[in-house]
Here is the input.
Amino acid sequence: MENQIDTFANDVSLNNQNEGYALWVYQKTFFHLGIFDSNTNSTYKVRIPKNGVYLFLIEGEIEVNNQILKARDAMGVTDFDVFDIKIIPKSKILLVEVPMNQT
Here is the structure.
């Protein structure tokens, strides 16, 4: 993981969308972990349209959708297929993509 700086590594994924090294599950969920250097930007695109993303900031400080998050903060990101993340100091981020209820 330490050699994959400034990108999200796919650690858990749906069986038929596995990138070869991720743990696969029989659910429409994906876990991505990323370590980012300070003053960088990243973009996340959901793997399955209409999924939502639970974002947990393990360490550091980031800005998502004009909201500042600090270490151990979390937020839900819904109604976006793509969203941008501005990394302020070096940060470690966990993204959990999950299906949302369709009513």
Notes: Residues 51 and 99 are 5 Å apart (CA to CA). The chain has one domain: 7-98. The first strand starts at residue 7 and ends at 14. The chain is about 0% helix and 55% strand.
